[in-house]
Amino acid sequence: MKDRVLKALAILLLLGIIFIVILVQGLIYTGSVSLLGINYESLWVLITFVGLLIISETIFFFSIYQIPKSLYSLDLIPSSVKNLLDICIIYTISFLFIVFLDQVMHSISVPFWTKVLFPFVSLFLNCVLVGDDADVPDESEKLNDEILNKIENCLSSKSVFETVKMIKKEYPEISLVVIKKTVDKVHKDMV
């Protein structure tokens, strides 16, 4: 977690330095300011645009982003589909808010290619800051031999569904997803 924060701070510092260099260069050499094709009348308009974009993305992101996590935890979708939905949600939210703010704020204009490419920056920053669950150890590997033996014994006489149901009754502290994954794994090994 600490490495991610340091990495994110380094990236933000680098982006800040690049922004300042482009801003100063634009003011000195052209007299008008243009950053990534985004034309704006004053620096405060740009700050307002970026601030509104970050606030709106954050609010909608944390509410909509829970949908794939919930579907995955209920074991309705596999991990690959969850990851694909995460990427689609992040990109779509960023794209829609850039288009919306471009239409609402008349003192700023964003070209189409920037509207399409800028959400990739948001996607990249989101992957760096939020990360994924890949570094979280698999809980099914933590189950002790006693539970695994019970699963094997149950599977020899009962269905997968009945085995999951019985193990969940005996061990309510273990999540249903972990139990189901473990039972499926043991069942595949037995077959």
TrEMBL record:
It holds the Pfam family YrvL. The chain crosses the membrane at residues 9-31, 43-62, 83-100, 112-131. It comes from the Bacteria. Keywords: Membrane, Transmembrane, Transmembrane helix. InterPro entries: YrvL (IPR025912). This is Uncharacterized protein. It comes from Alkalibacterium kapii. The lineage of its organism: Bacteria, Bacillati, Bacillota, Bacilli, Lactobacillales.
